Amino acid sequence: MNETTVKHALSVGAYTYAGEYYNYFRTLPDDVSELGHLICSQIIHRITLKEGNTNANATLLYGDMNLFPWHRLRCEDDIFLTATAITAELFRLDSNGFTLNRKVEDKLVLTCRCRSGFAPYFVPGKSVDHWVSQYFTDHWIIFDADGFFDTEKLGFYQYDIPHEKFDFAADTWLKIRNGSEAGEKYINGGGDFALEAVVLSLFSDFHALMNNEISYKFMPAFIAGKFERLTSSDLAEIDDLANLMIAPDENFHALLGIWETRKKFRILNSPLVGDWDNQI
């Protein structure tokens, strides 16, 4: 990576800014697998909570879901959007902060956010929307800190995922568009599939690459609830963006140029902000 790209990769946005927790975060493990295990000990995925003590939690790996407070049966991503908000709430619930023995009732119900795409390793024959993280050594390493995964069942190590085992959104979009992949294979938690599901992940991933790791409920206003109205010109613009995102380091300046000038890709709708608030 060149100096500009490195500087960007080391910077943070509103969602990942450490604030008053900067020094505390520096005390956490440097080893990615150790850190990932610690993070997974603080949270419960909303699907795990919904399924209770079955499936992934049949051995109570994530704790006894019967002990989780009934009045918090929700996805807390809607409340705690930023790293500082998440950390503050973890400390409020348990003053020890990030701890391996956090009680189930003191965990947060959070889903994953960062690089967005589709994981083919959860549902046979399908690739479901999912988020992973990356860190850089001499190359980018993909890891999944969304839970405690069985390496033998996965067929690979969750903290060093082979690139071909995760379907990044841009690559997936282009493969469906050129007919080399069947769109029906790709689904998301909202019930969307094919291009309509992938476009949501593609823009989540674009914003993540630009250090703006948005919630999965935030989406560019021109596509939010309007996928069927996209024109051939809109689709061609998304194709161009996806082609650049295939190699984000090499195309960083072009992506940054789009980020700084293409209003339609950046102005978002959300649960509170709709088209009536946006002037594109």
Protein architecture, described:
It is a single chain. By secondary structure, the chain is an alpha/beta fold. The chain folds into 2 domains: about 110 residues, no CATH class; about 130 residues, no CATH class. The protein is about 35% helix and about 10% strand. The protein is built from 11 helices and 9 strands. The strands form 3 sheets. Strands 3, 4, 5, 6 and 7 form a 5-stranded mixed sheet that branches. A two-stranded parallel sheet has the order 1-2. Strand 4 and strand 5 form a beta hairpin. Helix 7 packs antiparallel against helix 8. The chain is globular and about 50 Å long. About 25% of the residues are buried. The mean pLDDT is about 95.
List keywords for this structure.
2 domains, single chain, globular, two-stranded parallel sheet, five-stranded mixed beta sheet, alpha/beta, 280 residues
Distance between the termini: 33 Å
The Rg value, from CA coordinates, equals 19 Å
Category by helix and strand content: alpha/beta
Major sheet size, sense and barrel closure? 5 strands, mixed
The helix content, as a percent range, equals 25-40%
The low-confidence parts are none
Question: What is the N-to-C order of secondary-structure elements (H for helix, E for strand)?
Answer: HHHEHHEEEEHEHEHEHHHE
**What is the β-strand count?**
9
